[in-house]
User: Fold these one by one.
Assistant:
Number 1:
Amino acid sequence: AEAVVVVDPGSPVVPAEVELFQALPEGAPPPDVVVLAVKPQVAPAALAGLPALVGPETIVISIMAGTMLAELAAFSGDAITVRAMPNTPAAVGKGVTALFANGLSDDARVSIEQLFARTGSVVWLEAENQFDAVTAVSGSGPAYVFRFIEALAAAGEAAGLPPELSEKLARATVVGAAALAEADPRSPRDLRAAVTSPGGTTQAGLEALDADPGLPALVRAAVRAAAGRSKELAEGR
Ligand SMILES: NC(=O)C1=CN([C@@H]2O[C@H](COP(=O)(O)OP(=O)(O)OC[C@H]3O[C@@H](n4cnc5c(N)ncnc54)[C@H](OP(=O)(O)O)[C@@H]3O)[C@@H](O)[C@H]2O)C=CC1
Ligand SMILES: O=C(O)[C@@H]1CCC=N1
């Protein structure tokens, strides 16, 4: 990008080449791309000045959970409007972003894809109503994995390891398993089977993990709750 501008009423630390504004600038030429990253609850107040700022060539990308394209139309004036759901591993180029828009030109589609490809992989959704489930799986998902690291570290401590060592082992194990899942084309199921010696330690651990209610049921409940919250946000609650 030629110039990157951040609008934030606070004082976030931004890179030297980024300009910081406390409020939306008035009378500026229409930007190429605007990314809306405020909380959905503050959007009406924060974005009131946006229609006057954007032009018909501007691409407005909202990453707000639960804010529908139909609602975004009120903020985005003439601009091309896109919904995106990224996730925080984007900070290290390992994110995954789901995108959806109606009637995009091929050019717009390519530039949006290129923008998010800088932060990791990109998928286009077939329907806007997939966002609730997508938000619950990949938007919120990193937090489930971090929770797992915390739980594994705490369990190691309970099994007698010093806290620092246990956290180091738990973190390195999840990082290593994720890297293997990325590099090895086998399914997660096959990767799991490769660790699990018949009658060995892993089998004993997995049996406990799957005992009622079991990890799959807990994860299903987590995704259902997060998707439900996404729907509530869409209804303005
Ligand atoms: N966190 C995540 O993993 C993901 C978040 N999202 C979406 O991103 C959005 C932000 O979430 P998150 O980063 O977690 O929340 P934060 O509260 O961390 O970020 C919100 C930001 O908006 C700023 N802000 C508040 N009011 C205004 C305003 N009037 N004008 C401009 N900026 C304003 C805040 O500034 P200040 O701190 O000074 O109040 C803050 O920097 C949400 O819509 C969320 O759904 C989407 C995908 C993943
Ligand atoms: O918790 C949230 O609402 C946002 C959306 C996905 C991740 N964080």
Note: The chain has two domains: 4-126, 141-234.
Number 2:
Amino acid sequence: MPDEKLPLALSVGDPSGVGPEIAIAAWQARDSAGLPPFYLLADPALIDARARRLGASVAMVETTPAKAPEVFVHALPIVPLAARSIDSPGQPDPANAAGIIEAIDRAVADCLGGRAAAVVTCPIAKKPLYDAGFRFPGHTEYLAHLASLHTGADAMPVMLLAGPELRTVPVTIHIALSEVPKALTSDLIVATARITATDLEHRFGIARPRLAIAGLNPHAGEGGAMGAEDEHIIRPAIERLRAEGIDAFGPLPADTMFHARARAGYDVAICMYHDQALIPAKALAFDEAVNVTLGLPFIRTSPDHGTAFDIAGKGLARPDSLIAALKLARRLADSETKAAAA
Ligand SMILES: NC(=O)c1ccc[n+]([C@@H]2O[C@H](COP(=O)([O-])OP(=O)(O)OC[C@H]3O[C@@H](n4cnc5c(N)ncnc54)[C@H](O)[C@@H]3O)[C@@H](O)[C@H]2O)c1
Ligand SMILES: N[C@H](C(=O)O)[C@H](O)COP(=O)(O)O
């Protein structure tokens, strides 16, 4: 149960991406954006170098999670990593992997250790981490692994993209499109939808959330003429969910479920693969949508965008989605605190 006074732990992400500069920009916007206190887990030399590169005048103080809230008022609180980072914007380097992973590990340890209210992550690029031996598809799966290590219980992570007008969940995440039909099972859809329904109710305060379940194939299979998965895998999953009392319906043709009138009929769209969920979420609200991991014993949010290597170090990166992620993390942490106190 997070304490209302605890700061948020922000991991720096890939130092060659835009993470360092959006963290600096978010801190600079703390008053105008009404941001809650956070501290940045990073190599202080990297943050100093990025601020200088961008000509940003920013006070920074190396500190601890406990002292971060008082520091936050006048300086960007940095909790230093043991690993050093190379400042090479736009040029990802597997040598930075140790610091990227240490920042995530420490944010989770701080959160589960009662030193931080929630974990917020700046973007990581997957390929340089894979090249350095990292064996998880992304944060989502790695955070579930860390949760299991800390608690001893298995955690099934669910990716939610939350924007002002649309929430979406991909059932399958970082796998090749050609693998999706093989990976899609009724059990996976049911498990994903259950966690989504539970967390939307308990963490987001949506009583009996309405889950619109997308089909996989064009026109949700057109009665089996355009693929069998919609009738043989997705529909039985929906029937099981309804039998459990979850307000799930579909399978809906994915091309007509994201326009404004259709969106008014549900609280979350459960989608069958990554782009089916993330394209509408990012098309509608690239600067505002937040990536939230459901199903974990702690709160984790992240901006919806990636490392943006093409603009890193150029002063073009917008901090808006990170600001939305910090605010949402605070809101979710506070509602958990209130629920536990009630
Ligand atoms: N949460 C995460 O860790 C996360 C999320 C998405 C992608 N990624 C990773 O990021 C890497 C790059 O992915 P991508 O190129 O597909 O997506 P991207 O989001 O990094 O970039 C897509 C486009 O959006 C622009 N953009 C992104 N963030 C911006 C910002 N804050 N302000 C202004 N413009 C911005 C970029 O310049 C680029 O033109 C990949 O390795 C991917 O795996 C990580
Ligand atoms: N698919 C996510 C997106 O595009 O926003 C992203 O790669 C982040 O995944 P993790 O949070 O698992 O790193």
Note: The chain has two domains: 1-157+296-342, 158-292.
